[in-house]
Amino acid sequence: MSERLARPPPPPRLLQSAGFRFALLFMAIFSVAAGLLVAVLWWATAGAIDRQTVAAIRADTLALMDRHRDAGPLGLIESIEDRMAQDAEAVTIYLLMDRDGRKLAGNLDHWPEGIAGDGTWFRTELHHDGATSEARLHRRDLPGGLSLLVGRDESERTQLDIVMAEGMAWSLGAILLLGGVGASLVRKALQRRMAPAMLTAQGIAAGDLARRVPVSLRHDEFDQLGATMNAMLERIEALMSGVRSVSDAIAHDLRTPIARARGKLEEALDAARSEEGLRAAVEEGIADLDNISRVFQALLRIAEAEAGARRAAFAPLDLSAVLSDAADFYEAMAEARDQHLETDLPDRLDLVGDRDLLLQAVANLLDNAIKFTPPGGKVRLSARRDGRVAEIAVEDSGPGLPQADKDRALDRFFRADASRNAPGSGLGLSLVRAVTQLHGGEVWLEDAQPGAEPPGLRVSLRVPLP
Amino acid sequence: MRILLVEDDVEVARFVKKGLQEAGHTVEHAPNGREGLFLAASEAFDMLVLDRMLPGGVDGVRLVETLRGQGNRTPVLFLSALSAVDERVKGLKAGGDDYLVKPFAFAELLARVEALGRRPSSEAPVTKLRVADLELDLLSRTVTRSGKRIDVQPREFRLLEHLMRHAGQVVTRTMLLEKVWDYHFDPQTNVIDVHVSRLRQKLDKGFDKPLIHTVRNAGYMIRAEA
């Protein structure tokens, strides 16, 4: 399985590739924009020429009609001849015919085909001056049976159309070509940027949890994705190592008491001569089992807190009340051991957290303090608000811990040599740490009275307030 | 009491059934949720002891929800391997009355079964609790023994109240921790014992008959006779 996963996946087929599709989409949008531009351009140029031509023909026609009214057919013919003579570029077209279809004036040889009645506009192909060209014509009928055609040669406009159509075809081709190239470049770039994340994910899936996504200094989206993935991987690895150390701990510190209980029971089975002896051994066995399940329970709670699974149970609470409750609970125990438990708590200290876990953490600290402080000693539980942080401290007048032990005291199952024979699982402080971390805070150990002998121990928790 | 035990583990079921029978109860056993629901709905029981996770599609929580939905108010004690506090809350929300995490001592189970089964049936609020010459006044919050006033702390008052409400019954340390202090964790040490012995000293000082008795391997009991 790992081999299959370790190989990089084949890149997606062209149309499946998101990068390619994004680029195509971009290209489509770009083409629409270019099309719009061309349309506007077309309207502005060819359209303007068209409108100009129509206006010129109309004006020309009206002028000729005026002339006919003022000066009769002869004046009209004269005017037409004049205009033709002045038109050096030969773009004007005229034809005047009488009722019988004889040409009176103009530069067209004969009446073009398919021409409708008075006042119509049309375009047609004409042969005049020995050339074929597109022309726009306007027909007016005059009194006295005369028919007048006025037109303009539109060869130039046709030329423009052709140039523009060719230009468009070329640029469309260029857009398609560049777009296609761009799309595959974008696709390649995307794949190249995604590849490290993908390879890392595959490596992880194949079991190599130490892999991380290489992050460039560009701080772009891919770097953000990579950084997010890395943060997630850190968390997963921390959890995994938590699980691993729990299983190590279970292997080590649960097996030992199980082995002890088993040995005792086996021995009793062999050696007990009386029912009483056997009964005592069984009772001891049950007590051992109870201890084992207690350790187990503590481990589960730590794991639960470390996994952050209990954050769902967070609720607003008054930390002062919780602490004074715990102090009240343990005060009896301190008193029974001739110790003095004093508290220094504010009236209210509002916090959002898990009451049961916080209680257990403080209970563990008080329990430890009372356990390790000699009779006549002092245990102090205090809390105060320090800006946006609540600081809870439990200090005692016990023997304290050497620096090396302080550093390791928060580890699971750590027990200072001096306390090997005191009851307890060695899990108390790791639970405290897990609970504090669950609440986003930190724990540290220090001497309660630095320099004094004994120095005592002070455990402080700092938990951020909402 | 007539008790319905719904538990799929044969061995646990056998020893719970045997223990409850020895304590004088009648026990019916159902090995899965479906049968359990059928029995619970069709016959009258004084108490249900339910495994939280059961085979057969109907787990403990579903079973209780269904029963409560039918208006059945039989007390329910959950047995569960799920120890997380949320799980406990879930069980109690569904209509369970108590929640015991596996592995458990049988004495703990028995004490809880009896405490649940003998809850006051009358709705009328009790204002005074009495055991032998000890009297606890819930209104004035005072404790007197043979007419002599005994000063107790508020927490000691609640501890005594709980013991007296269950006079003649075993109350375990965990039950006290849960019911008097509302703590759902393992205090590691015998803090409860210290509290009880403090209370005991106050109550018994100057009297020759002790009232609070330690029940070996189980817990405490308040009763008139030694």
Topology:
The complex is a heterodimer of chains A (466) and B (226).
Chain A: H1 2-6, H2 18-86, E1 92-97, E2 103-106, E3 121-128, E4 131-142, E5 146-153, H3 155-205, H4 221-271, H5 275-306, E6 315-318, H6 319-336, E7 340-344, E8 350-353, H7 355-372, E9 378-386, E10 389-396, H8 403-408, H9 428-438, E11 442-447, E12 457-464
Parallel strand pairs in A: 7-9
Antiparallel strand pairs in A: 1-2, 1-5, 3-4, 4-5, 6-8, 9-10, 10-12, 11-12
Helix pairs in contact in A: 2-3, 4-5, 5-9, 6-7, 7-9
Chain B: E1 2-6, H1 10-22, E2 26-30, H2 33-42, E3 47-51, H3 60-69, E4 76-80, H4 85-93, E5 98-101, H5 106-117, E6 128-131, E7 134-137, E8 142-145, E9 148-150, H6 154-165, E10 171-172, H7 173-180, H8 191-204, E11 212-215, E12 219-222
Parallel strand pairs in B: 1-2, 1-3, 3-4, 4-5
Antiparallel strand pairs in B: 6-7, 7-8, 8-9, 10-12, 11-12
Helix pairs in contact in B: 2-3
Specify the CATH homologous superfamily of the largest domain in chain B.
Answer: Response regulator
Query: In the CATH hierarchy, what is the architecture of the largest domain in chain A at level 2?
Result: 2-Layer Sandwich
Specify the overall morphology of chain A. rod-shaped
What's the number of structural domains of chain B? 2
Poorly predicted segments of chain A: 1-6
Strand content of chain B: 15-25%
The CATH topology label of the largest domain in chain B is Rossmann fold
Q: Output the radius of gyration of chain B.
A: 19 Å
Total strands of chain A: 12
Greatest contact between two chains: A-B, 34 and 23 residues
In helices, the fraction of residues of chain A equals: 55-70%
Mean pLDDT of chain B: 88
Q: Give a short account of the largest sheet of chain A.
A: 5 strands, antiparallel
Low-pLDDT residue spans of chain B: none
The number of helical elements of chain A comes to: 9
Strand ordering within the main sheet of chain A: 2-1-5-4-3
